[in-house]
From TrEMBL:
The keyword Hydrolase applies. This is CoA pyrophosphatase. It comes from Streptosporangium longisporum. Its cofactor is Mg(2+); Mn(2+). It holds the Pfam family NUDIX. InterPro entries: CoAse (IPR045121), NUDIX_hydrolase-like_dom_sf (IPR015797), NUDIX_hydrolase_dom (IPR000086). Residues 1-21 are annotated as: Disordered.
Length: 207
């Protein structure tokens, strides 16, 4: 897992996700890997359908960096605790990925990679923000049957995953795709499998 994290930390940022010279809200997300009952997994949340940004989307725990946070690592761990009940004492931070920019929400996001050496029970600890919490096995994410591309009406497309009742797409799927790429978990999949973003999903995301 540390090798997987190391590759992610040094991965170059694609042009569409490069932050602008100025502006944007500083934020952080936690990519928390652990050893679950079905092998190595990653912690994901399903955001509330009533949220203002990225409503209803699967995501990594995270949010804005507050003035009282000691940087992105502290912010990611705090948000994960607030959203899932995670005990930060059971987490070892491995590093951070380069800052990524989400134009839709004007967020400059630092992904924080960590190892869950002492897992604890997690749940939707903040129902107004989170509908559910899921530990998703990496082998299920890498399974070709669970992989596809999603096409936006504006013409661009990106990677996606259908796993554990979740449709993971957008920023979260892009980061997961990058983490899996070149890893021991990567399995060749049909990249010509392309679908339109479901209308209900698109409607929620366009808020």
């Amino acid at each position: 897992m540390e090798t997987l994290a190391g590759r992610a930390v040094t991965r170059r940022v694609p042009p569409p996700l490069r932050p602008p010279a100025t502006g944007g809200r500083s934020a952080a997300v936690l990519l928390l890997f652990g050893e679950g009952p079905f092998g190595p997994d990653v912690l994901l949340i399903q955001r509330s359908r009533h949220g203002r940004n990225h409503a209803g989307q699967p995501a990594f725990p995270g949010g804005g960096i507050d003035p009282t946070d000691d940087g992105p690592v502290a912010a990611a761990l705090r948000e994960a605790r607030e959203e899932t009940g995670l005990d930060p004492e059971g987490v070892r931070v491995l590093g951070t990925m380069p800052e990524l920019y989400l134009a839709h929400s004007d967020n400059r996001v630092t992904p924080v990679l960590a190892w869950w050496h002492t897992p604890c029970a997690v749940h939707a600890a903040s129902p107004q923000e989170v509908e559910s919490v899921e530990r998703v096995p990496l082998r299920e994410l890498a399974d070709p049957a669970n992989r596809l591309g999603l096409r936006h009406p504006r013409g661009y497309a990106g990677p996606a995953f259908r796993v554990r009742g979740l449709l993971v797409w957008g920023f979260t799927a892009g980061v997961l795709d990058g983490v899996l790429s070149g890893s021991d978990f990567e399995v060749p999949w049909d990249r010509s499998r392309l679908e339109d973003i479901p209308p209900d999903v698109l409607s929620l995301s366009s808020r």
